[in-house]
Amino acid sequence: MLSRVWSPSGYLTIFLLSIAALWYRYHAKFRDVSTGKRRATTKLPPTFPYIMPGLGTMPLSYIWNPMGFVKNPKNFFQADRPVRVKMLNYEFYVVHGPENIKELFKNSKLCNHAPFLKYALSYVFGLPPSAQNIWDKDDSGGLRIPHPESAVESRNRVDWGGHQGMAEFLEGSGFLPFCRRYADNITQRLHTLHLRTGDEWEHHTDLMDFVGYEATVSTMNAFCGPNLLRLNPDFVQDYWDFDRNLQTYMRGTPWFIAPKAYAARKRVLDAVISWQQHARDNFHASDIGPDGDDPFWGSSVFRKRHEMYLAMDGYDYAAIASEDFAALWAARNSITATFWAVFDIYRDPELLETVRAEVGSCMIGKTRENGHMAFDMEHLLRVPVLQAVYAETLRLRMHFYMIRMTDREDMPVRDWIIPRKKVIVTLTTVAHMDHKIWSTGLYNEHPVDKFWVGRFLSTPPEGSSQRYSDAAQSKNTRNSTASKTFSMKGMEASWIPFAGGHRQCPGRHFAKRQVLLTIALMIW
After folding, report:
1. Cβ atoms of residues 381 and 483 within 8 Å
2. Domain of residue 63, residue span
3. Is the dihedral of CA 157, 159, 160, 164 positive or negative?
4. What gap in Å lies between CA 429 and CA 149, rounded to an integer?
5. Where are the membrane-spanning stretches (predicted)?
6. How many domains does the chain have?
7. Is residue 407 part of a domain?
8. 80-110: per-residue pLDDT in tens?
C-alpha cells in the first residue's frame, strides 16, 4: 500500500477550495434571498446567508461604522422581504419595506411589549428588582381586555396600565391644557430671555444647549408643575447627562466602570423622588383645577399613575420614580428634533424667509395677560413648508429600532409567518433612507441623507436656488404657497418616527405642536 504525504501546498489547496465553496454557498443563498426564492413547503422567512457555519452573520463593520453598515444595500436590514438573522446561538427576524411594515403594524395587537419595556426600565431607568418581578408575571397582554389565559390581577397589569394612562392623557381631555401650559412656558421664557441674560448678546457655542435647555424647562414645567425644577435646580443638566450615557446603561455596563454615568442617573431619580415626596406632603384634593391638574403633581397623569403603581405588588416610591422619569425622558426626541429643525432652517436663508413668512401669517397679535405674541395654533399646524420642515427633520434625524415579539401566536407578514416568541426588528433609518421611496429631486440633487423639504411638498421645485422663491417674494404666505401642498400620501409605512399600530407613540400629537411652536418663536 502506498502512503501519501500531504505537502503544505496540498493543505493550502484544500483550504482555498473550502473557502471558495463557502463563498459560493453564501452568494447562492444571498441570490435566493434577494429574489424571494423559497421552498414551496414553508412560509418561514429565509435565513440571511452567512459564510462560516456556526458563527452566522457577524456584522463587524457595524461596530465602527453603524450608519455605513445600515445603508449598505447588501446587509440584512435592507432585505425586501422578512429574513431570519442568525448570530452564534441567537436569532431574530428583520422586517423591511412599506408593505411588510404595514402588515406588521396591522397585526401589532399580537405583540407582547413587556419583555422589552422591562429591559429598558431595569437597565436604563434603574427599576428596582422588587418591581421587575411584576413585569415577568404580567402575561395579560397590551389590550384593554386581558388575555383569557392570564390570571394576573387587574391591579397588576403593569404593561397595559402604564401605557394606557399616558395615552389617555396625551390623546384625551388632558392634552390641550398640557399643550397650553407648554406654550405659555416656552413663550414666556423666550420673550423674557433678555431679562435672564442681560441686554448684551450672549454667545452660545452649542445651539443644542440653548434650544435644549429652554425646551426642556418648558416641557418639565408643563408636565410636572413648577416644583420639580424649583426643588432640583440642576435637573435639566442631569437630564441631558443621563441621556448622553444611554448606551452605557443599555449595555449593562457595571457601575464601577462608569461611575459618572450612574451618578447622573441617581441624581435624576433622586430629583423625581424629592418632587413626588413634596407633592405627597402638600397636595390636597381642593388643589385640583378645572382641567384636572394641580400645582404639586402638575399634570393629572402623574397623580393618577402614582395611585396606580402604589397598588401594584412590589412597587414603592423608588420604582415609581423610575417609571415616571422614563415618561419624562421620552420627551427628549421632540426636544432634539426642535434643535435640528431650527438648525436646518437657519442654514438656508431662503427656507428661513419662507418659514418666517408662514409663521407671520399665523400670528394673532399679543395676549392681554402678558403682552407676548400669540399664534393661531391650528393654522400653524397646517402651513405647508413648516409641516415639511417637521416631517423632513424626523425622517432624517430620528434613528431607532422598533423591536416586537408575539408570545401566543405566530406573526403573519404578507406571505410569511414569523414564529411566536421570536424577536422582530425594524429599523427606522432604513425606511427613512430608502432611495426607492423618497424623492431626490428631478436630477437626484437631493440625496436621502441630506435635508430637503421638497420631499413632502406636492410641487417640489426644480433647483435648489429657486426652491422657495415664490414664498420669499411676499410675507403673505397664504397666497405665495398656494401652489405648494404638504403631502404624506404613500409614505405612511415609510415615515415611521412614531412607530405604528395600536401602541403607536401617544406623544406624537404633542410633539408636532411643541416643535412647530418653538420653531415659530425662535425664528420670528
Report:
1. no
2. 10-94
3. positive
4. 37
5. 6-26, 47-64
6. 3
7. no
8. 999 999 988 899 999 999 999 999 999 999 9
Q: Is 179 annotated as a binding residue?
A: no
Q: Examine the domain organization and report whether 156 and 193 are in the same domain.
A: yes
- The pLDDT score that the predictor gives to residue 164 is 96
- Identity of the amino acid at 6: W
Asked whether residue 185 is assigned to any structural domain, the reply reads yes
Please check the confidence at residue 306 and state whether its pLDDT lies above 50. yes
Q: Which three cell numbers stand for residue 93?
A: 427576524
3-state secondary structure of 295: coil
Choosing from 332, 356, 380, the residue where a domain stops is 332
Mark out the alpha helices in 283-366 (DSSP H runs).
300-310, 317-329, 332-347, 349-361
If one counts every other C-beta atom within 10 angstroms of the C-beta of residue 194, the result is 12
172 lies in the same domain as 283: yes
Q: Kindly state the helix (H) or strand (E) to which residue 416 belongs, with its residue range.
A: strand 416-418
Q: What CA–CA distance (Å, rounded) separates 82 from 416?
A: 7
Report residue 68 CA to chain centroid gap: 20
The set of residues, in sequence order, having a beta carbon less than 8 Å from that of 113 and lying 6+ positions away, is 142, 159, 163, 404, 503
C-alpha R_g of the chain: 26
Distance CA 258, CA 459 (A): 51
Give the Cα separation of 76 and 81 in Å (integer): 10
Q: Considering only 41-50, 130-139, 339-348, which range has the smallest mean pLDDT?
A: 41-50
The pLDDT of residue 141 is 93
E-assigned strands of 1-146? 83-87, 90-94
Q: How far is residue 514's CA from residue 516's CA, in Å, rounded to a whole number?
A: 6
Distance CA 275, CA 282 (A): 11
Q: What CA–CA distance (Å, rounded) separates 93 from 425? A: 6
Which of helix, strand or coil describes residue 378?
helix
Cell numbers for 169, please give them: 392623557
* Dihedral (Cα; 283, 286, 292, 293), 10-degree rounding: -40
Q: For 460-478, how does the pLDDT look when each residue is reduced to its tens digit (9 = 90+)?
A: 444 433 333 333 333 333 3
The one-letter amino acid at 517: L
pLDDT tens per residue across span 143-164: 999 999 999 999 999 999 999 9
* Closest by CA position to 381, among listed 217, 113, 176, 87: 176
Q: Is 207 helix (H, G, I), strand (E, B) or coil?
A: helix
